[in-house]
Specification:
5-stranded antiparallel sheet, 1 helix
């Protein structure tokens, strides 16, 4: 979805968006912003595209950009990468190059 600008016009000139349209555009703009970045299974996730039909964030999707600790309690391996297939399960699939592409990795010894 593209950014939807609210037509403010001049007060009470009848040319701007009405309150219902204004509120709808505001909700859609915020929905897109908040859907692109969120936490899932302890990983920070950024979505390249917004899919208005996808209302659940309970699974990783293809092209999700992910970064976080492989094990948040131990914090010995920090991973950044891209999910290659929808339904990828992290951290289980982190080392499966067919499901997850590691772009940056830091190991704490």
């Amino acid at each position: 979805m593209a950014y939807r600008e609210i037509n403010r016009s001049e007060p009470n000139d009848g040319l701007g968006d009405d309150a219902r349209t204004w509120a709808g555009k505001t909700n859609e703009n915020f929905k897109e912003v908040f859907s692109r970045g969120f936490t899932l299974s302890g990983f920070l996730v950024s979505r390249i595209t917004y899919d208005a039909t996808e209302t659940s964030f309970d699974a990783f999707k293809e092209n999700d950009m992910v970064r976080g600790w492989e094990d948040s309690t131990v914090k010995d391996r920090f991973i950044e990468g891209i999910v290659l297939v929808s339904g990828c399960v992290l951290p289980d699939d982190i080392d499966d190059a067919t499901k997850f592409l590691i772009t940056n990795e830091t190991l704490n010894a």
